[in-house]
Design brief:
Order of helices and strands: EEEEHEEEEEHEHHEHHEE
Oligomer: single chain
Radius of gyration: 21 Å
Largest sheet: 4 strands, antiparallel
Strand order of the largest sheet: 2-1-6-7
């Protein structure tokens, strides 16, 4: 059961820090939230930090490692995710006499109103007792509040490579909505990727533009394919 003393600290765009009991936390308290820590870039930095333009958020979302970046890409591609906040809060509480503090990596929300707290840890670190204790405490507190808690490690490299490639075509504002809809209408039955590009070329005008349209439809998941295999001209695409 969640401890009554468990609190979360939320940093706002105005620079204020709001303190809220975890038991009282709702998505609304994050309306003006910013990441708890400032993302920094400097020479010889040990961690690979950066900012990723999220199609879900239509805005940049920060990450502090390549592993966080990889999992952020997958969250951005997930149609069940409609909102992402990095480093959403600092959680503080008592764990059977031990005072703990923890900053999760991401907070996600879904169209059905459900919330998921995400931590990203290398698989090797999941063997360290201190890390396991911290994550176990976080899981107990978050799940007792009714939110989902997920620990992500290294994703499967092939689906990740496919999603990373498709992410180059994620920006909807770069595509004509009429052409996107027309391409989706033309691709109403299963075809190979190569066949899809040829079918869309009359709409896009040139094969390179048609290829981009098809890849955008895959990113937005108006088309689907088996991402456990590397994308190729023979990959079979199906309408969703």
């Amino acid at each position: 059961m969640s401890s009554a003393a468990s609190m979360i600290r939320i940093r706002s765009v105005q620079g204020h820090v709001d303190v809220v009991a975890l038991a009282d936390a709702r998505l609304g308290v994050f309306a003006a939230a910013v990441p708890w820590r400032e993302f920094r870039w400097y020479r010889r930095q040990r961690h690979f930090s950066g900012s990723y333009w999220s199609a879900t958020m239509r805005a940049p979302v920060g990450y502090e490692s390549r592993l966080e970046y990889a999992n952020l890409l997958l969250c951005d591609f997930d149609p069940r995710v409609e909102w992402i906040l990095s480093q959403p809060f600092l959680m503080e509480g008592d764990d059977h006499g031990t005072t703990r503090k923890h900053i999760p990596d991401y907070l996600l929300s879904r169209p059905d109103g459900s919330v998921c707290v995400v931590d990203v840890k290398p698989a090797a670190k999941l063997q360290i007792p201190a890390v396991l204790d911290s994550l176990d405490w976080t899981r107990r507190e978050v799940e007792a509040h009714g939110w989902e808690y997920r620990v992500c490690s290294e994703p499967d490299p092939v689906p990740l490579a496919n999603v990373q490639f498709l992410a180059g075509y994620r920006r909807g504002f770069q595509f004509d909505p009429g052409q996107v809809d027309a391409a989706a209408d033309v691709l109403g039955a299963p075809v190979t990727f190569g066949e899809a590009v040829r079918a869309v070329t009359p709409i896009a005008g040139e094969p390179p533009f048609a290829r981009s349209l098809v890849l955008h439809l895959l990113w937005t998941q108006r088309l689907r394919t088996n991402l456990s295999h590397l994308l190729s001209t023979t990959s079979v695409l199906e309408p969703t």
